[in-house]
């Protein structure tokens, strides 16, 4: 994780993806799709009710070269933050 | 520049095993989303999964429905290769398969597997 919870709270994402209710690999595929619609340096925020999404997106970000910033717990879902780096 | 990574998923289970049928598509979709080339090979009862209309009958608990997974894999460029003799023994013709599926023989499977980073069997 490259951002503190306090820092995550201050982020306004360039794009928010509501993947709540989607089963694996839905949130990952939504994140991949969203990356194609924002410019390098933009931040996307993925909402997911699947508790493993935050680790999945973290691993995926490391694999493909994006910056995984971390996740915040919200009301019954996680808010996962990633910065497009390529 | 290094060759791109490639994974081959060999699918041997048919619609009577929804979880076994769904997991390789989940993995293939995740691989494609991770910029990894994907080839899916269907042999034995697995060929039934790519017969038109069969995926619509498959939905494993806690997984996306198989038609959604299959559409994701196809949209992201995954190749669907289907065993020729397995099709013949089931009287399945190319026209019976989902669009984009290709009927191949053993030599093509071997070429794909030996040129892949890894092969996973389901």
Number of alpha- plus pi-helical segments of chain B: 4
N-to-C span of chain B: 31 Å
Percentage of β-strand residues of chain B: 15-25%
CATH topology (level 3) name of chain A: Translation Initiation Factor IF3
- Total number of helical segments of chain A? 3
Structure description:
The complex is a heterodimer of chains A (86) and B (122). By secondary structure, chain A is α+β, with helices and mostly antiparallel strands. Chain A has a single domain, classed as Translation Initiation Factor IF3 (2-Layer Sandwich), CATH 3.30.110. Chain A has 3 helices and 4 strands, in the order αβαβαββ. A 4-stranded mixed sheet of chain A has the order 1-2-4-3. The mean pLDDT of chain A is 95. Chain B is α/β, with parallel strands linked by helices. Chain B has a single domain, classed as Hypothetical Protein Ychn, Chain: A, CATH 3.40.1260. Chain B has helices spanning 18-33, 66-75, 84-89, 106-114, and strands at 6-11, 37-42, 79-83, 102-104, 118-121. Classes of the chains: A alpha+beta (86), B alpha/beta (122). Chain A binds chain B through residues 22-26, 28-29, 31-32, 60, 63-64, and chain B through 26, 29-30, 33-35, 62-64, 72.
Compact description:
Chain A is α+β, with helices and mostly antiparallel strands and 86 residues long. Chain A contains three helices and four strands, in the order αβαβαββ.
What key attributes describe this structure?
heterodimer; A: 86 residues; alpha+beta; Translation Initiation Factor IF3; four-stranded mixed beta sheet; 4 strands; B: 122 residues; alpha/beta; Hypothetical Protein Ychn, Chain: A; five-stranded parallel beta sheet; 34% helix; 20% strand
Topology:
The complex is a heterodimer of chains A (86) and B (122).
Chain A: H1 5-9, E1 15-18, H2 26-35, E2 43-48, H3 53-64, E3 67-73, E4 78-83
Chain B: E1 6-11, H1 18-33, E2 37-42, H2 66-75, E3 79-83, H3 84-89, E4 102-104, H4 106-114, E5 118-121
Parallel strand pairs in B: 1-2, 1-5, 2-3, 3-4
């Amino acid at each position: 994780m490259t951002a503190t919870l306090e820092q995550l709270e201050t982020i306004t994402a360039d794009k928010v993806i509501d993947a709540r209710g989607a089963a694996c690999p839905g949130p990952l595929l939504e994140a991949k799709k969203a990356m194609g619609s924002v410019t390098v340096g933009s931040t996307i925020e993925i909402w997911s009710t699947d508790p493993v999404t935050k680790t999945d997106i973290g691993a995926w970000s490391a694999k493909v070269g994006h910056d995984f910033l971390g996740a915040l717990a919200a009301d019954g879902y996680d808010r996962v933050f990633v910065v497009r780096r390529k | 520049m290094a060759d791109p990574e490639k994974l081959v998923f060999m699918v041997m289970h048919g619609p009577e095993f929804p979880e076994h049928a769904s997991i390789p598509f989940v993995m293939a979709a995740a691989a494609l989303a991770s910029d990894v080339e994907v080839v899916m090979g269907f042999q034995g009862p697995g060929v039934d999964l790519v017969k038109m209309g069969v995926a619509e009958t498959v939905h494993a608990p806690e997984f996306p429905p198989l038609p959604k997974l299959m559409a994701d894999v196809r949209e992201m460029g995954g190749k669907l290769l289907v065993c020729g003799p397995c099709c013949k023994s089931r009287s399945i013709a190319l026209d019976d398969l989902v669009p984009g599926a290709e009927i191949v023989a053993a030599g093509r499977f071997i070429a794909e597997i030996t040129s892949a980073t890894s092969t996973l069997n389901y």
